[in-house]
């Protein structure tokens, strides 16, 4: 029999048997990734063979393809043994697991006949299955003895495993993932029933303006269907525990499905609540609710990436939005143990090694906040966002190479630079030393690379590679690239956050509270804060707890919690110093930040810290005669600070 049908024809037979109410040709074509015409042709061949055994697949415009009720059981008995023997290794695993989850203890003697494997081979296969589930899902409840495989765990743990497998199978994007779901559900899956549940959830979501994307909708529908199948098979959850508050969406779906006579209840809802918590769903036109914990993680991640790689995600609002959304749901999935799988993880790591290396930085940050590391698959999705940023948004330094008479040396230097700095540099080709000044005047260049010393005066940074590039060249050039990148970032932030309208000179003997109150009024009048009294009081309270003086001249007071209307820095330049924490302060940077701009705040704090390292900087700033001059000086510092 096995030789009478092709592998695809056996899958068609399997789909028809598993959908006793009928299945359309277009649906089978979708599952098997072929055309409807191919399905029709295969059905003709199948019926020609079945006719010899007095069986036939019928069709109608309403039901699709089906088997007559009176012939159904006989044909199932006739076909199923051969379907099992046609399974590949992966599907065989799901078939065995499905049998154990629904029928309990499975003897190798019985399975060997059905799967066409020896008992010894089956024992080894089951050991591999047990190891796989321990490794992938930390599921250590399969019991394997010399004669059988069994399972020993609570129903809640079985369902959690099924939900984890649902994520993996849907994310695999395999065209036959529904066949694997059918094997896991041990012949309790009916496509027309699943499609009905899918449509109910989709229509209900649309009625309440809930946006659920394609794969997410499939995950949710299958999750609900698995609960229904387990209940129908007389498996029930006792005393379930949910890690999260009730999801109103889940409650609505349970009510809707119950009204349609599906067996599902509140206990199922608690488990589904955890599952759905990590799936991206939002009301139309509403922003995703990003937690303060997520903003803290993102801010720390961006800061670490900037410090280590000098890559600034802040340059792209779109990238920050993508990262914040993914990290928010990643944290939820880690907490509920329903993390995503990525079927192309190895290709991503191979194709984008730099982006993956940057993504790994997130791992320690996540662990610091949730005491659990994200899996490699989750980090691979972060890798794609980073790669998109590096390719489309990352501001690369414009580099020109001073050409040599020796073409081989030119090629060697260019190749070395591209191999080591391609994600940070754009190369504008070669220029002779004679033409260098003219080229720089006509083009915006950040760095000049030369193989010999440049004697003429240079207004932009340059680096000399003497001979064959080596490790020291890499370290020194990396340091130079980082400094220039930092300065570019500082310049952007200074121009964005500082404004002449919120720079004020104090010529009398004001105290700290007076200065904060006056600067708060300036911030309020220019639309940065909601309330003068509330903001100034929060600043003063924070200063009482933790001093913000960073040297004998500079203080940067700000509230403990950032929640202002928009971000900006009010500046107070004092003729007479104020005493703060036993230090004389002449320059006050009053920071007002929106909670979404924590990353900019980190960069700004780093910039002001660098200003404070050299007392000459603060003297130069406080000697400004007016706000315009102050802005010119601080912008100059942002471009040149070491």
From TrEMBL:
Organism domain of life: Bacteria
Domain PTS EIIA type-2 span(s) in chain numbering: 496-638
GO biological process: regulation of DNA-templated transcription
Key words, A-Z: Repeat
Gene3D superfamilies referenced in this protein's UniProt entry, alphabetically: 3.40.50.2300, Mannitol-specific EII, Chain A, PRD domain, Winged helix-like DNA-binding domain superfamily/Winged helix DNA-binding domain
InterPro entries in the record: BglG_antiterminators, HTH_11, PRD, PRD_sf, PTrfase/Anion_transptr, PTS_EIIA_type-2_dom, WH-like_DNA-bd_sf, WH_DNA-bd_sf
Residues of the PRD domain: 289-396
Pfam family for this entry, one: HTH_11
Entry keyword Glycoprotein: no
Protein known as: Uncharacterized protein
Organism: Faecalibacillus intestinalis
Taxonomic lineage from the root: Bacteria, Bacillati, Bacillota, Erysipelotrichia, Erysipelotrichales
